[in-house]
Amino acid sequence: MTGHSEPHVRWERDGTHTACLTFSHPRLRNALTLSMYDELEKACDEIDAADGVRVTVVRGAGEAAFAAGTDIREFTSFTSGADGIAYEHRVGRAVDRLAALRMPTIAIVRGPAVGAGTILAASCDIVLATPDATFGAPIGRTLGNCLAPAALARLYTGFGRSRTLQALYTAQLITAAQAHETGFVSEIVPPEALEERAAELSSRIAGCAPLTLAALKEADRRVLATTVPAHADDLYATCYGSRDFAEGVTAFLTKRAPVWEGR
To answer: Is residue 240 within 8 Å of residue 145, measured between CB atoms?
Structure first.
């Protein structure tokens, strides 16, 4: 666990069998920096190596947001499609590492879990959300980048293909109620009861056979792995190397609507 106030990912033990993993960047609603993705990967390695951990609870710091995607300022240094490929691979490793934790994971979602926040929530096994939680990746309206096939596969599993594509194509967010209807959100919980409900679920999971929990996690991972193409570097290069992506980043940071050219 770290104690500094800079953007970071930390984890700590809560009792005997529960790990608590937190994204902390409150000034930008817990949007992740590139270093935070690296810290997430490292934290998951440490959690997996910790004796006796049987469940991990994942949350955003504070009460304003789970994670509002990636910190857009990270994209200002991109000059080519190769930068986009490197970024997607770096983020993909962290997301895959979260999904590959040997024990069940519970995401506690307050407020926005958008962009990468939705993908991180989708990488958890159980999602508890407050009524004001929102999900989605409105990149068609904001940045003009793309999603990894593995991310799409996780969203299809949670929201269904049709609902996912409609939200992506129209750059609209999915409400907590809609996400619960599709099964992406396991339960909608009032904010004041969220921590207690997470603790109840954690305790119940921790009381189950550890090898059974690990086997179920691995079986689930193998099911998902059969549906995901190996890579999409060509798509990353096209989007991140485009003039439209540079325009999207500039427009986002200057708080204006982007003007798309299709190149």
So the answer is: yes
Q: Which of 68, 15, 2, 10 shows the shortest CA–CA distance to 207? A: 15
DSSP 177-194: HHHHHHTSSSEE--GGGH
Q: How far is CA 167 from CA 25, 97, 130, 158, 263, in A?
A: 26, 26, 20, 13, 23
Could you say which DSSP state residue 131 is in?
A: T
Q: pLDDT tens digits for 8-34?
A: 999 999 888 999 999 999 999 999 999
Give the C-alpha separation, 24 to 182, whole Å: 28
For domain 8-206, give the CATH superfamily.
2-enoyl-CoA Hydratase; Chain A, domain 1 (3.90.226.10)
| pLDDT tens for each residue of 181-224 | 999 999 999 999 999 999 999 999 999 999 999 999 999 888 87
Scan for tokens 């596969």, then name that residue: 153
- What's the whole-model pTM score? 0.94
